[in-house]
Amino acid sequence: MPRGLFITLEGLDGSGKTTQIKRLAAWMEKRGMHPVVTRQPGGTATGDRIRALLLDSGGTGLAPMTEMALMFADRAQAIAEVIEPALASGKIVLCDRFTDSTEAYQGGGRELGSQSVLELHRLICGDLQPDLTLLLLPTLAPSLERARNRNRRASEQSGKDENRFEQEQEDFYRRVWQKYREIAAREPDRVVLIEGNLTIDEVHEQIVEAVSERLVSIGPKS
Questions:
Q1: How far apart are CA 131 and CA 125, in angstroms?
Q2: How far apart are CA 59 and CA 217, in angstroms?
Q3: Long-range pairs of 54-62 with CB within 8 A, sequence gap ≥ 24
């Protein structure tokens, strides 16, 4: 059976990834592609417990290396339980965040560097690479404000607190933003960079164009 395609969406908190992955999945469904949609951290029962540890703003004192190790523990479970089985059965997988996020947030934001992240990815994730990564990079301040407002609303409505990263200062997010740009420059064949403060429809149009081109050019891998 031909191997499926692995597509990831990346970007700052508040960049619109969640909205865009839903729109992309709906676009694919209309064309009979029926993608598997997942997220990181989370997406499995184990991953959801790890997500609570990582994102709860009450989780103070979490060491940067512990944070990175938990990210990879979540990722290893997602690969084993969701991603690899779907790809092996020929499906398209849409994943909200993958190792690029760890390189940007822990490698860049926490200043652990790219080398340790990439080495852990090789060892723990079998160096599994997305076929296509859609990187959303609007300007920093509006993205962060949207993320903080969104999480405040979610906390009020559900009581679930996922604000730990949003409490970081702007310097942290500038390092994250810059690391994402470094990743895009390093891997232009994989990463499609969508920059600027575009409308939801404009971003969706660029995503559909990039995905359509990739589907035509590479197709399912054997």
A1: 15
A2: 44
A3: 54/164, 55/161, 55/162, 55/163, 55/164, 55/165, 56/161, 56/162, 56/164, 57/161, 57/162, 57/163, 57/164, 57/166, 57/167, 58/161, 58/164, 59/164
Q: How far apart are CA 35 and CA 23, in angstroms?
A: 12
Half-sphere exposure of residue 45, counting CA atoms within 13 Å on the CB side? 0
Q: Band of the pLDDT at 163, cuts 50, 70, 90?
A: low
Tokens standing for 97?
């965040």
Going from the N-terminus, what domains does the chain have, and what CATH number goes with each?
A: 6-218 (3.40.50.300)
Instruction: Give the integer Cα–Cα distance in Å for 144 and 150.
Output: 10
Residues constituting the chain: 222
Q: What is the tens place of the pLDDT at every residue in 83-102?
A: 999 999 999 999 999 999 99
- Check pLDDT > 70 for residue 159: no
The pTM assigned to this predicted structure is 0.89
In angstroms, the CA 21 to CA 208 distance is 11
